[in-house]
Each structure stands twice: as structure tokens, then as C-alpha cells.
Amino acid sequence: MPPRKNNYYLLSLGCSKNTVDSESIAQVLDQNGMRAVGDPERAEVLIVNTCGFIDAAKQESIDALKDLVDLKRANQMVIAAGCLSQRYGKDLVQYIPGLDGVIGTRRWMDIFDLVARLRTRKHPEPMYHLPTDAKVVGLDERGVLRASVQGVSAYLKIADGCRRPCAFCAIPKIKGTAVSRPLESIVAEAVQLQELGVKEIMLIAQDSTDYGYDLGMKDGLAHLLDAIVEAAPGIPWIRIMYAYPGYVTPRLMETMAKHKQVLPYLDIPLQHGHRETLKRMKRPAKVEWVYETIGQLRETIPQLAVRTTFIVGYPGETDEEFEGLMQFVRDLQFDRVGAFKYSYEIGTPSATLPNQVPDDIKQTRYERLMELQQGISLAKNQQWVGQTLEILVEGHGISEDDRGRSTGEALSLGRSYRDAPEIDGYVVVEGELPVGEIVPVRITGATTYDLFATVQTGAPIVIQPGKIYGEGML
């Protein structure tokens, strides 16, 4: 089938923050009379919202763009959007000859304007839309919902950009400095998501705990949570992602503790546990703060689940520093840990550091860290056996035996408050539960990452989170 004018194909790559931008781009195109299609051969406009964070993600984005350029016909156009576009700008065409347009992260809302210009161009040269002023972000969003809705869960972007100096990260170069969205806009969108039947909102930004700093607010994230809870009481789950060490304040802890809607879950990427490594990373290096703050969080917010991420093999990481990280993990017993091997990034301060760690040592350290955390995660999960948890049901499946053969028995797949989408575990429940509902289940088994459960009467009374379930309630 030939492509039709006003049809567009949009491929979104990268993180959840990129997914929100892709949804916003789609809304702008829809508002201008265009229609999304799932087959690129049927689309006039082919867009890849790229990721430019690490080498593997960059290569995936380049490959996707090359595939579309090779596929396109005379009446089609291929546009690169997102982080890779902002990072490499006009140079991107050198990697991908035949690319028609390049638009950066800071004016995604101008996507249709670029399409209109490409339609009327007289010469085949590519066109660019790459403003460098990050301050426009959040101030001209053209009435789009800055959220990505996936089932009954939604990522809601509260800010864009970052002002942190992390030596390994190119995000400030790509996104610019931190720019918070107006509080009233975010709250209005939370209300809109409530009206759409959303059960879980995940607040996202490059640094969610920096929300409101540029607006002159102190404890801006706490104020935002208060406002969302008051305006959208029908949203049962609110989850905080991407907190920054040193900015989890007592006021934020108190706010999380007092609102039942705010899940006892905190994603706080720490990146390392040794002072000297953190200094070279240009990250907060006061490790004592982490011990004190995690202790305060767990005391203030019962049953808190803490997720973090670490980088192993950072330039100059000695055996002693790595062992310091291992002890840090043993001491603090995180619920969830993601680990990454350091990736060399051109243009970042870490790229020029001496004493780059060999790949085989990175791999060994990665495996040792993950083996340590797997034991911790398993023990944490086993503590839930025999208790009751609320889960958000996301889908159904059929159980299999040890040989991978279907047994014909129905299963439900859900997430508890301890599980953020895509990065954490699941709760697998016997039988079919209603998709999109929050249901209490009794935990019967545990693995390193997942829990198993049944729905039955007579479950023990457990407060989690903020509600009481007991016999006769199920």
C-alpha cells in the first residue's frame, strides 16, 4: 500500500522520559490533522525519537534511521528527533545520508512546523530545527498532555533538563539546564489522567527532587505532591522516580509518609558507594549522608522500597574502591539495584580521565556486584511470603511446566508498590484477575526478582500500603 499524505510513523527509543516526549510529538501531529500508522510504508512522515545517552543506544537510533532512509520513497520524509539529534545536530546527516530533517529536544513542539517546511522545500537538502535555548521548554507546550499513558499507568513529566555536573553524563549538553513545568499545569494533567481512569502516576524528570528550584520554590517536589493528592484523590498510586542524593529532604520524607497515595517507594540513583570514586564522578561524595538518609527514610516511611543504580569500572576505580561499593551495598540492603559497566562518552569530563578500567575487570566487577545484590533481593522478597500485598493487574498468561509446556492454567501478572514498570519485578498470581484493577493477593513464593501469589480468603492482616486487609475482605 502506498504512503498517504498526513499519515505519520513514530518510533520511540530510549527511556520513559523520551516516551513522554514521543507522546507529546504525536499529540502535536494529531492536533494538526495527521494520523498515526504502525506501518512505515503507509506513512508520509517517518520519525525516530532517538536516544543519545550511551553507545549502544546511539547505535540503535542510527540503525533505525538508516533503515527508514533506505526504505523511504520519493514522497516520504525521514526526521530524526530527540537526544541524538540535539547532541550531534547537523553532523547527524554525515552518519545518515538521505535524512530529511533534524529536530532537537528543546523544541519538540515545533515538529509540525518542520513537517510543513519540508513539504514546501524546493531542494532536497535536509532542514534543521535545533534551538539551543533550553528555557523555552515547558513554556510553549501547545496544550499537549506531557504524559505517556500505558494501560492504567502513566509517566508524567514534571521537568526537563539537568543542572548537575556529573562527569559521566551528557544529559545537560543534550537537554540543557533544569526547567520545571508550572505546578498548575502538572496538577491539571494529573486531574486529566484521573478522568482517563489512570491508577498509577510516575513523576519523572532528569532530577525529580530538583523540581521547582528554577521557579524559586523550596521543597518543590513536596509541594507538588501535596497539590496532586488534593486535586486528584482518585489516583491511588503516585510513584517518585529519579531522586538525587542530597535532595531527599525531611519535608519530602514527611510528605511521602502522610499521603497514602504516595507509594513507599523511592528511586534514587547513587552511582557508587566510595567517596573517591564519587568525587571523580562529580557526584555528592558524602557517603555518610546516604547512610543517615536511608535510615531516616526507613524510620519515617515503614516498608519503604529503595531502588538505586551503580556504575562499575569508572575510570580510576581501584580494587579498594570497588570493595567499598560492595560493602556499601551489604550495609544498606537495597530492595532493587541496577548496575551498569562504565561507558566511554565523548564530550564528557570522564572521557579524559586517566586509568580507564579494562573491559574484563568491568565485567568481573559487574558480575560480583549483581551476585551480591541477587542474594539481598531474594532475602527481601522471601520476607513477603505469607503476607498480603496490593498489586496492579497488568495482564494474563498461561502457566508452564519445567519443560516449558503449557499446563492450561490461567495466571495474572501484576506489580506491587515495590515494582516500577519495566525495571523491577512482577507478582504472578494464580487465576485471572481484572486487568487495570488494584487487588490484594497473598504471597506464596519468591524468587530473586519476582513474587508468586494466590487470591484467597483468610489472608493475614497486613497494613500495605496505608490500608488494612483481613479475613472476609477478599
Could you characterize what this model shows?
The chain has helices at residues 16-31, 55-71, 83-88, 92-95, 111-120, 171-175, 183-195, 220-231, 250-258, 275-281, 287-300, 319-332, 359-382, and strands at 4-12, 35-36, 43-50, 77-82, 101-103, 127-129, 147-150, 153-157, 159-160, 179-180, 200-204, 237-240, 262-267, 305-312, 336-341, 388-400, 406-415, 427-430, 438-446, 451-454, 462-463, 468-469. With 474 residues, the protein is α/β, with parallel strands linked by helices. The longest helix is centred in the C-terminal third of the chain and has 24 residues, at 359-382. It has a 7-stranded mixed beta sheet. Strands 2-1-3-4-5-6 form a 6-stranded parallel beta sheet, with helices on both faces. Helices cover 32% and strands 25% of the residues. The protein folds into 3 domains: 4-134, Rossmann fold (3-Layer(aba) Sandwich); 136-382, Alpha-Beta Horseshoe (pyruvate-formate lyase- activating enzyme), CATH 3.80.30; 388-469, Beta Barrel (OB fold (Dihydrolipoamide Acetyltransferase, E2P)), CATH 2.40.50.140. Helix 7 runs parallel beside helix 8, helix 8 runs parallel beside helix 9 (250-258) and helix 12 packs parallel to helix 13 (359-382). The chain has 13 helices and 22 strands.
